[in-house]
Amino acid sequence: MTSSDAGSRRPSVTVGTQLVGDGGTGVRVNVVAEPDAPRSTLPNYKAAAGFVGRAAELAAIDDALSERETPQVLVLHGPPGVGKTWLAVEYASRCHASYPGGTFFVRCDQAPPPDLARLLGILGLHRFADEPIEDQCRRVLAHLGARPTLLVYDNVPDERALADWLPPGALACHVLATSTLAYWPRPWNTLPVGLLADGDARLLVGALVTDPRAAQRYADAIIAKGRGVTVELCAAARSVDYETRHGRAGAVRAGLASGTESSFGAAFRILSGDARLVLRVACLFEIGRIPADALRALFAGEGWTDERFDLALDAVHDRTLIVATADVLDVHQCVAQFVRGQRAPEIPLSLLKHHFEAFTEAARRFDEQPGQPQRSARLLAYPADLPFWTGLLAESSLLESLADMAGRALCTGGRFDEALPWCERAVEAKKKGDVHGRVDHASLGKSLHLVGDCHSSAGRFNQALPWYERAIEAAEKGDVHGRVDHVNLGSSLHQVGGCHSSAGRFDQALLWYERAVEAAEKGDVHGRVDHASLGSSLHQVGYCYSSAGRFDQALPWYERAIEAKKKGDVHGRVDHESLGKSLHQVGDCYSSAGRFDQALLWYERAVEAAEKGDVHGRVDHESLGKSLHRVGSCHSSAARFDQALPWYERAVEEKKKGDVHGRVDHGNLGRSLHRVGDCHSGAGRFDQALPWYERAAEAKKKGDVHGRVDHEILGKSLHRVGDCHSIAGRLDQALPWYERAVEEKKKGDVHGRVDHGSLGKSLRQVGHCHSSAGRFD
Q: Lowest-confidence range among 93-102, 424-433, 548-557, 611-620?
């Protein structure tokens, strides 16, 4: 069924249909364009059978999400097919008016979720041509919640996947998630969704079986067959409706008899051979993401006419085994599991080959423009599991010839675990060489490098290291003509340095970064130098020196990094964010030597660069805040507290906005809040300093972007609150703050290291409070 065919049978305002619930409940709903609600991507039930039952669950959701201005997360969890997504969308539809920021439906079975990136347009945000999908998703999350907003996250795999895509905590944004995961530890707020009650199931049967007498007659048998699973109930009811309309009462009774085939089996049996084949091939895609045009193209390649394909698809569609959402087809996971267990009709090998070629073509197109959500969504429509394709295709030569493309695209999309076996397969294929046995070592080196990336992205640096070293050996041999691409060579050298520095082996890392610099300076096979990449390696050489306290040696490397980064990449684009970090490090080199007046100038330049953002103009407010903070430090180190104060205040405002993804490092924010307090207390304004220290303590309690709390710096802010009270003679009020400071400092910093000198100061102040009150015991 083509989208135009579907549109001709629906009202003009309808733009598609969707099967809703855990990937599809079996109820076909229309997706309607509502002029009065443009900020919504929810499917709409109004023109379909309607929502039945679940009154208690709806009330529980409403209670959990009642505070519209407060961030809330609720997870609906239960077995597949019971209607979790149907329930979530129904709630969102009913409460749409109370979410002026919008109600958005996002499939979360893959990360990053392209549905989230697509919201850029709806939110009126600019889309950059080569911006990664993940960064687009982060930008969307950072801009949500200015007004109350609801995100429906469908089919979330686990708690980590949900945590990765939550909006920043300060935003007025609610997340209503669905998941088949049964156990969600605290502090997740959850609501179990069980089987559909018999009364509600009876209402659903009445809505799906068009003959009222048949609905009443067979309701009990349909309910027994469906066992409270919504998608089973729908399949059974649709089969009864079909057989009843064709006057086959015997077939109805046989299909509903206990001990017979499942509801899906009865529906599948009704289909013609063509319709069964269409359904089987559709299930070769990722369910819920089946591109209608790609499925049609596969059958066109087998000589099918559009009419033949449409007739087969319509038959499957009528059984609610597959449902169209404008340009995407959806199959419920329960239906897909049944269909994938069938062995007939046989799928032609030629069609399977075309399916794999379409997958690699989608990979190629995504690799060309990874920032296009449409291309990301198309790649996600295909299974990325290598064993799936190995079992599907008899010819390994086809897999080997295209493994490199698949692995590279998956790496580009950040799907490193899935990319790893493809990249390893590509390495083995390239080692064999071409038909003449000639090995392109440059190309082999790229695949070896990608295997290293797969390991390092997961923090497995010890496993990544030998792959990068092998990549270097291959890259040094050059291509089939012996030409060496020193840019790629430099990249692998840089990554070896990264593996060593990640383990704190800076002396070893230094040698590799220096070699990376030498390679980058030579450029690619055409002599073109990527100065941005060169600058990164120069910066890392400086970092190795400064990490060892050798700031005088680090300084010239950072200065060289600045000069390189100012020239930009091979296209001349300057990443001012990266440039600002090198300028900042030069400032650190001077300030570490006590030359604060010289450091000040570099920090100010770092601020100017950070304000311009990266090559896309995106500003990392966290990084900008750090440079603003350091400007303030230079002034305060010279006791210029009045000059330092506005810089710290600006640092606070920037850090509150978070990094480019909107993630706030509250520990770092607390440092700037503390410094504002210091400026006031340094001028004797302790009453003004007090609320800033209190805010600093509250921020530091939340920890960094990973939730890690530095109890030492938290203790210092608590101590300073106590100081403000004790200076004003309020020793009874000061005492509990000093006591809290003691408890925090005893826990140490983020590495558990205790500063006993600092701890002693707080203990002494506790003693002072007691002794001042005559409590010498």
A: 611-620
Q: What is the DSSP letter of 123?
A: T
**CB crowding 623-637: b at 16 or more within 10 Å, else e:** bbbbbbbbbbbbbbe
Question: Is the pLDDT at 592 greater than 70, yes or no?
Answer: yes
Cβ-count burial of 693 within 10 angstroms (0-12 exposed, 13-18 middle, 19+ buried)? buried
The pair of three-digit structure tokens given for residue 10, joined into one six-digit string: 């629906």
Question: 714-719: long-range contacts (C-beta < 8 A, 24 or more apart)?
Answer: 714/670, 714/744, 715/740, 715/741, 715/742, 715/743, 715/744, 715/745, 715/758, 715/759, 715/762, 716/674, 716/741, 716/745, 716/758, 717/670, 717/673, 717/674, 717/677, 717/693, 718/744, 719/761, 719/762, 719/765
For the cut 60, the answer to whether the pLDDT of residue 45 exceeds it is no
CA distance 102 to 653: 27
Residue 27 has pLDDT above 70, yes or no: no
Long-range contacts from 550-554, C-beta under 8 angstroms, 24+ separation: 551/588, 551/589, 551/592, 551/593, 552/589, 552/593, 554/585, 554/589
Evaluate if pTM is beyond 0.90: no
Read off the tokens for 249. 């009462």
Which of 483, 481, 394 lies closest to 434 in space, CA to CA? 481
Nearest Cα to Cα of residue 363 among 339, 389, 340: 389
